[in-house]
Design brief:
- The protein is of the alpha+beta class and about 800 residues long.
- The radius of gyration is 28 Å and the shape is globular.
- Bound molecules: alpha-D-glucopyranose.
- Alpha-D-glucopyranose binds next to loops.
- Alpha-D-glucopyranose binds near residues 193, 288, 316, 317 and 502.
- One of its GO terms (biological process) is carbohydrate metabolic process.
Length: about 800
């Protein structure tokens, strides 16, 4: 029996409903009555600026116009609203210009230029329509709340109509079918070692989904940190419900009509990733654990000897002294600063793990400081929250306390002085051996608002990594930190990247990796990745290579494995696989400028980095069930190979013209193609009209000072824009507009092809030349015109009719023609 079933109640009569408050017998606890209250007929309303308050005499609903496309709803059962505070939405991004209010005989209407929020008078149902009055999202029944007999609190409920074929996407990292219709989920951050397909909940809680009704998309962000539930037509095909075990029924309706609009607008509420340091986009090698020092030095040397690019090496818990955070095991690492420098000298960044559990040890300064300052979480009876994790008996900082966050941020000073470049935040669900997590009664500061663990549990990890990120940012001065976290809540992207936790070395987990990353990307967390190869279990060479291939196209690319597994480096499976792994890691490095530009578009505009096919063509019904094609950024489409022995794949391409990345064969979109993909290949297609920047293969970011940059221009008969972003790569100068964004516009016909360049920004790269390769020209050019003047430019042709020219980086227009 799951949580919802436990409290399912006998049918309520209309008379009871009209009475407002019902007292019905609870079948579980015998005689104790459960109080359950639905909103009743609206009695009055009032407007305060862009807030409208509707009351049924006892409960009040607030309708807040946030922007033309975002409306926030919240319900106060007894008309007293809770403090308007959110960890997910630090500041409501008000932008609504004009809105109006109308009352008709049957309803009230709050209308912006694009959305109508309709509040029916009699049933108090809330619906959203577009400006053509097409209904997009409607309450099935009035919002309600009911006593929670298990916890002594209450549930808040919202039930929407679900239309036949309405599809649902989002909710973070659920390891399940991409379209969530027919499923029920809960959000409660949970340490799920070796999780299985369909297991729920996992490590993160992102209570945001995108609905796709016919061809119109909308979003619902239920900003509630308690344990929340979502039922997408599981209990009843015609209903979608979401509810929480406490807190407020507060949700944002986010208008589309495109999925991309919804995701972008969700980012305006919850924020985007700051620009990561460029090196963080390289390949990372991790294991539980690389120690002692000689081992990690040898690892670094092997990468360089074998010329397999790598930017970061990780130290798991064994680098610490008895798993005490912020200490070093001096037996294994006698001189960490020297070692970190040695690694840095050969181009490796060192990233170390930190857990929230602080060992109870009077001789350990972190414990002493935390204890003296009362920074650790306490139970309701005032005793400390204690639990066993890696170091044994531990206490846990209350990261929902701003003072504790400040303290925690400062604790990284030593690691930063040692030269550590990134912090991996683990076990922050929070995980506790045995009991799983904290008991519900643990108290939290909750930024001064106070609350039990029921309220703070899902944000604990996010607040830990927030403390880490903010602390590192101060300590690194103007350098960008890398943070990684396992747990998180909506908005965690403002502080960290995310990896999906303890997965398994299996082909099914490779498929889950794809699902989890595309889903996370739609849910605001684009900087995500999985443990390449699978954390537990043993991949064979083929699985590892296919995972590396997918890894090239996950924003965070790190191989990681559990301590009881065999060695798991790119060369661990023999020479054949080593060569293949190297080839694909090199591909990642070639594409780094493209990848970095996709990060910029995420940071600046809230475009997700990974975009599943349904997002590219949402009105094609079949796309709601296609799970394997996605684009990285907006130009490169990937459909990774996910089965053993598979050497070709049917790939669907959205309308338009595409090119096979490897063969340059032209492929028409709007249909399926069979693409060959032996183990040394994978289906990658590039959209016609794209300008893809490429760097030469480097062993680590910035190994080489570039004196020119390559662009691959894919011929198109329709006009296509591409954006290319560059900046210092590791500072925050981009916040002061020190960056350059270039727009390329490509268009061609039967006898010419032109590329125009528009450049904006204050950053000046050092290179002077572009090395441009035209792909797919339908003619062999004989002339080149640069900025209106015919130039004698050397053209190189190869067997694939690619035409290569060099040009000064400041050109405005290049034309190649017959
Ligand atoms: C957890 C992490 C894993 C890490 C291990 C030891 O299981 O998810 O990545 O290696 O702890 O720190």
């Amino acid at each position: 029996m799951d949580e919802k079933d436990k409290i399912s109640l006998p049918e309520i009569t209309i008379e009871q409903l009209e009475e407002g408050v019902q007292h019905v017998n609870n079948p579980i606890v015998g005689l104790k009555p459960i109080e359950k209250r639905y909103l009743q007929q609206v009695k009055d309303y009032k407007q305060v600026d862009n807030d409208f308050f509707f009351s049924d005499g006892e409960s009040t609903v607030e309708v807040k116009v946030v922007s033309d496309e975002i409306i926030r709803i919240r319900m106060a059962p007894q008309s007293t609203f809770l403090e308007d505070f959110s960890y997910a939405v630090p500041k409501i991004p008000y932008t609504a210009s004009l809105f109006s209010f109308k009352e008709t005989e049957l309803d009230y209407r709050v209308e912006t230029n694009t959305v109508s929020c309709i509040i029916s008078k009699k049933e108090f149902l809330i619906s959203f329509a577009d400006n053509q009055q097409n209904m997009i999202n409607e309450d099935f029944s009035a919002m309600h709340w009911e006593e929670n007999v298990d916890y002594g609190g209450y549930y808040v409920y919202c039930t929407k109509k679900s239309h036949k074929d309405e599809a649902y996407f989002g909710l973070g990292d659920k390891p399940t079918k991409f379209n969530m219709r027919g499923r029920r989920f809960q959000n409660w951050n949970t340490d799920t070692y070796s999780f299985a397909r369909d297991q729920d909940p996992l490590y993160r809680s992102i209570p945001f989904y995108i609905g796709l009704k016919e061809s119109t998309a909308y979003g619902i962000f239920f900003d509630n940190t308690y344990k929340t539930y979502f039922d997408f037509g599981h209990e009843e095909d015609s209903k979608t419900s979401f509810w929480a075990e406490g807190g407020e029924l507060l949700y944002y309706y986010i208008h589309g009509p495109h999925m991309m609009d919804v995701v972008k607008r969700y980012h305006t509420l919850t924020g985007t990733h700051p620009m990561p340091p460029l090196w963080a986009l390289g390949y990372h090698q991790c294991r539980w654990s690389y120690y002692p020092e000689s081992k990690i030095i040898k690892l670094a040397k092997t990468f360089r000897d074998k010329k397999i690019p790598c930017d970061a090496l990780y130290l798991d818990i064994d680098y610490m002294d008895g798993y005490r955070c912020f200490t070093w095991n001096k037996k294994y690492f006698p001189d960490p600063k020297k070692m970190v420098k040695e690694l840095a000298d050969s181009g490796f960044r060192t990233v170390v793990i930190i857990d929230p559990g602080i060992k109870v040890d009077e001789n350990y300064s972190v414990y002493k400081e935390g204890k003296d300052n009362k920074y650790f979480c306490r139970r309701s009876d005032d005793y400390f929250m204690e639990g066993h994790v890696w170091p044994g008996r531990c206490q846990f900082p209350d990261f929902t306390n701003p003072e504790v966050r400040e303290w925690w941020g400062g604790l990284f000073k030593g690691l930063v002085e040692t030269g550590v470049a990134g912090i991996w935040n683990d076990m922050n669900e929070p995980a506790v051996f045995g009991s799983g997590t904290f008991p519900d009664d643990v108290r939290h500061n909750y930024d001064g608002l106070r609350g039990s663990h029921r309220k703070a549990h899902n944000v604990y990890g996010m607040q830990m990594v927030r403390a880490t990120y903010d602390g590192l940012k101060k300590l690194y001065k103007n350098k960008r930190p890398l943070t990684i976290t396992r747990a998180g809540y909506a908005g965690v992207q403002r502080y960290s990247s995310v990896w999906t936790g303890d997965n398994l070395a299996s082909w099914d987990h490779l498929k889950l990796a794809l699902l989890q990353c595309t889903r996370l990307s739609l849910s605001g967390v684009s900087f995500c990745g999985t443990d390449i190869g699978g954390f537990t279990g043993e991949p064979d060479g083929e699985l590892f290579t296919r995972w590396i291939q997918l890894g090239v196209f996950t924003p965070f690319m790190r191989a990681h494995s559990a301590g009881d597994t065999r060695e798991r480096e790119p060369w661990s499976f023999g020479e054949t696989y080593e060569a293949l792994n190297k080839k694909f890691i090199e591909l990642r490095y070639k594409l780094l400028p493209y990848i970095y530009s996709a990060f910029w578009e995420n940071h600046k505009f809230g475009f997700p980095i990974l975009r599943p096919i349904v997002m590219l063509e949402q009105d094609k019904e079949g796309n709601r069930f296609r799970e394997e094609e996605f684009t990285f950024g907006d130009k490169i489409l990937i459909s990774p190979i996910l089965n053993p022995g598979q050497t070709s794949k049917i790939v669907y391409l959205p309308p338009g013209t595409w090119y096979d990345y490897w063969t340059h064969e032209k492929l028409e979109g709007g249909e399926e193609h069979i693409i060959q993909a032996e183990l040394d290949s994978m289906p990658i297609c590039v959209k016609a009209g794209s300008v893809i920047p490429e760097w030469p293969v480097m062993q680590y970011v910035n190994e080489i000072d570039l004196d020119e940059i390559k662009f691959q221009v894919y011929f198109s008969t329709y006009e296509v824009n591409s954006y290319y972003y560059e900046d210092h790569g590791d500072t925050f100068a981009y916040e002061q507009d020190i960056y350059t964004e270039k727009k390329f516009v490509v268009k061609g016909d039967a006898c010419s092809c032109s590329i125009r360049q528009f450049s904006e920004g204050l950053y000046t790269p050092r290179y002077e030349t572009y090395d441009i390769k035209f792909i797919g020209l339908p003619f062999l050019p004989t002339r080149v015109i640069i900025d209106g003047r015919e130039q004698k430019v050397e053209m190189e042709f190869d067997a694939l009719k690619r035409v290569r020219i060099k040009a000064n980086k400041n050109f405005k227009e290049i034309q190649v023609l017959i």
